[in-house]
Amino acid sequence: MAPKQAHVLPDMEELSFTDSELDYHVRNALKAAVQGDCDFYNQLVAVMHHKDQLVPEEVALLVTCLKALTGAVSCIHIVHHQSLLAAIFGMSLWNYGTDVMDALVELLISLAASSGDYVDLCLEMIVSNFIPPPSSSSYFIELLKQPRGLAKKGQVLDCLHSTLKDIANLVPLSPLRLEKIVRDRMPNIYTKEPFIVIYVENMLKLESGAMHELVGSTMLVAIMDRLIDLDVEIAWDDILQDDFCKGIFDMELEDLEKTDYHVQQDGDELTRESFIQRFLGGNLIAEKLDSLMVLTFEHLTSCSESGRLIQVFETLIHSFQKTVLTAYKSKFTQFVMFYACSLDPENCGKIFASTLLEIFVSSIYPEWRMSAVAYLASYLARAKFVSASFVAATLESIVNWCYDYCKDQDGDLNPRAHKVFYAGCQAIMYVLCFRMRSMLSIPRLKSQLLLMRVENILGHPLNPLQVCLPSIVEEFRRLAKANNVFTVPETFVDYGLLESECSRAFGGVERLDMFFPFDPCLLRKSDRYIRPNFVYWSMVRSTYDEDDEEEGTSDEDIADASENGMNIVDDGSARNFGEGFLDLDEFDTSLDKMSITPRDSSSKYGGGIRGFMQMPSRIRPSTNPESL
Amino acid sequence: MEGLKESEANLVVYLHPSMAKCVNDAILRELSSLLFTYSETFDGVVLAYDPNVRSNLAKILPGIHPYLGVRLKAKLLLFSPKPNMLLEGEVVKISRQSIHAVILGFSSAVIADEDIRDEFKYKVKHGKEVFVSRHHKKHKIKAGTIIRFLVKSFDEEILHISGSLVAVHTGCARWLDANLEEWSQADSTTRKRKDRDEKEQKTADDKMMANREMPSLKKDDRIKKLKKKRKEHT
C-alpha cells in the first residue's frame, strides 16, 4: 500500500508509517506482550482508553490502531491480552463519531469470526451498547431529547444492527447465542424509562430485521413478558382510592371531556386529564408501560404495512395465552392484542376471538375459561371493527355451550359449582348490552338472535339472573324489555347494586365476575391509538327513554363519530345517528340511562349528577375484604 | 468430505408425564433439542436423527415426577471434525489476513494468513478481494468459492473451525478436482524447491524490516513520545 502521511501518530510527525508497517508493529507488540515485553502493548491499551473530547488527531490514532488490530486478530490471545480486550469491550459506540464506530465494529466482526472464544464477548458488547453508557446516563438522557441526540441514536443503532448481521453471516450460529444474550440483558422494570425504551426499540429492530426468522419470536415474547411485569406492578390502589367516591367511578372516562364537559363533584371540577393525572400521573411504572406499549403499537403498524402482521400475531397470541390470560387481571397489556386486531380485523381479529372461544369451551382450567370468556365478551363489546354478524356467530357459540351445559343440570343455583356457566351467561348478557341494537337492526341477525336459546338459559333453575352481576342483569333486562326481544323473568335481586353475594361467589377470589379487560385504557399515550377503534358505552344508544332529550352531550364524541363516518353500527341503519346526528338534543347521553350506581349515592350527591350511572365499565375490586 | 458419520445410538428419552398422550411428538422434540450442539457422548454435532421406537412400553422412573423412560434406537448423522481432516465449505469473506468460510451452512471456519500457503497472493480485482495462486492463475479463492481445507482445531462450544490451506491438496475445490495432474505430480521436487525459495525470500524481507531504523523501537524516541504525551495531557 502507498505510504500514508502523518494522520497516524500525532506526536511523531517526523515519522510516517504505512498501514502494513503499523500492522507489523502491532503484531509484534502483541507477540512481544505474550513473551513479557509490554511496552508498545501498553501504549496500545492506553490508546483504546481515550474517549473524552477527542481531538481529530486522537481520533485518527484510535481509528488506525483499531484497523491495525483488526488485521492482527489472529495474534490476539484471550488470556495474555486481557487488558487490551477489556479496553476494547469496554468501549461504547455512543461516545464516538462514525469513524471510530465503524473501525470498532470492524474489529468486533473480525474478532468474532476469528475464534469461538470471542463470539459471546463480542455479542455481549454489542448488546450492552444497545443503551447509552450508564456512567453518563444523565448526559445522554438530556441529549436524547434533542434532534441531534435522536440522530446519534439512529447512527449507533444502525451500526450495531448491521454489525450483528455481518457477524451472523460469518458465524451462522451467532443468532442463537444473540437471542439468549438479549433476553438475559433486558433491563428490569426499575430501569430508567429512556433506557428501557431504547432497549426495547432495539429488540423490535431485531424482530423486523434480517434475523427476524431466527430471533423475532423470542424478542416479542420477552417484550410481552416485560409488559406484564410492569402491568402487575401497577397496584389497583394506584387507580382506585377509597376516599374517592364511588359515583365518579361509574363514569366512563371518555365522557369526562377535556374542555367543555365537566363533572361537578363535591365542588371539584374534574376533567379527563386530571382524572388520569390523579391516579396514574407520576406513576413511573405506568409511564414506562405506556411508552413501551406505544412502541409496540408503532411496530405492529409497520408490520402490518409490510405484510408481516399475521406471523407476528401468531407469536403474540401464543404469548397472550401463556402470560396475559393467566396473569391476575392484566390491566393494559391486552390492548396490544386489541390494537393488532384492529389493524387486521378479518384475520387477526377473528383468530383472537376464536382462540378465546376455544379456551372457554375446551380448556381444563376453570379460571382460564372464565378469564377467556371475559376477554371475549369485552372484546366483542368494545371492538368497533368487529362486524355485527361475527358478533352474532360468536355469541351463538357461547349460547350453545351454555345451553348444552345447563340442559343436563338438575340442580339449583350454585355459584361455585357452575362458575364457568355463570361466566358464560354474564358474557352473553354483557355482549348483548352493547350489541343488541346493532344486531336487531339487521333482519337476518335479528332472527338469528331470536333463535338462540337465551331465554332457556336465563330461565333455567340454575338461575343465572340471580347469580350474575346485578348491574349487568338489570341493564340487560331493561334492553330486552325495550326491544321486545326476550322475556326475562324477574328475580329477587336488590336493585341498583353493582355486585352481590352470589356474583362474588361465582367470581371467586380473583373476582372474575367483575373482570372487563377491555374497559377504556387509562394509559394516556396508548389510549390515543385505541380510541378510534373503541366502543364507548355512551356511543351505544340505549333503546329506552328515547324521546328523552337530555343535555350534556359529548361534543367530542359527536365530532369523532361524524369523522369516522359513523361506522359504529356497521349496518348503517342506526337511525338516530344517521340524519339527526348533529342535532345535539337527540343525542342522549346514556349516562343517564344506566342504572348501576346505588340509587342512594345519587341522592347523596344532591341528585345533581342525574344519576351518572353506568355499566360496570370500570374494573374495580369490591370493598369486600375477601377480594384482592 | 470427511468429518460426517452416521451412527446408531441406543437412547432412552425421559418424558414428562404430561406428554404421555403425544409420545412421538415429545420424542421428536427432545431429539431436536440435540441439534447443532456438540455432544460428548456421540462425539460430534448432531445434524439429523431418525428415531425408531421399538416397543410401546416405557419404564416409569421412581421419584416426585414419574417420568417415562422410552427406549429407542436412532440413526444419527454426526459431524465431528478432527485435526487434519479435509473439509469443504463456502467462502463468505476474504480479507488480507484471513479467509472465512461456512461449512454445511452452520459451522464457521477461519483460515488465518499464516495458514495460507505462500502460493496464494492476496489481490483486489475489480473491487473484489481474492486470493490467487502464483503458479496457476486460474486457481482463485473468492467469496462464493467452495474451498477444501484441513482442520487445525475445532471449538466445540461455538462449532467454530480453525483451518489451514498449507497442504498442496487444499484450495478451490473445483479447480483441484479439474486439475488433478497439476498439483499431484509425482515430480514434486520442483514444487518443493520453489516453495523453499519463496520461504527464504520472505524471511529475508522480515529481517530487513526489523533492521530498518524504526524510531519507535529505539528507546530514547519512545521516551520522547511518552514525555510529549504527558505534556499534552496536562
TrEMBL record, chain A:
Comp. bias intervals (Acidic residues): 546-560
InterPro entries in the cross-refs: RNA_pol_I_trans_ini_fac_RRN3
Keywords, comma-separated and alphabetical: Initiation factor, Protein biosynthesis
Keyword Protein biosynthesis among record annotations: yes
GO molecular function: translation initiation factor activity
Keyword field contains ATP-binding: no
Region (Disordered): 546-565, 593-628
Pfam families listed in its UniProt record: RRN3 (PF05327)
Family statement drawn from the similarity comment of this UniProt entry: Belongs to the RRN3 family.
Protein name per the record: RNA polymerase I specific transcription initiation factor RRN3 protein
Annotated source species: Forsythia ovata
Lineage, uppermost ranks: Eukaryota, Viridiplantae, Streptophyta, Embryophyta, Tracheophyta
From TrEMBL, chain B:
Keyword vocabulary terms for this entry: DNA-directed RNA polymerase, Nucleus, Transcription
Highest taxon above the source species: Eukaryota
GO biological process, one term: DNA-templated transcription initiation
Region (Disordered): 186-234
Membrane-spanning ranges: none
Bias kind Basic residues: ranges: 224-234
Cross-referenced InterPro entries: RNA_pol_Rpb7-like_N_sf, Rpb7-like
GO cellular component, one term: DNA-directed RNA polymerase complex
Basic and acidic residues bias: start-end ranges: 195-223
Subcellular location: Nucleus
Function, in words: DNA-dependent RNA polymerase which catalyzes the transcription of DNA into RNA using the four ribonucleoside triphosphates as substrates.
Listed name of the protein: DNA-directed RNA polymerase subunit
Record organism: Forsythia ovata
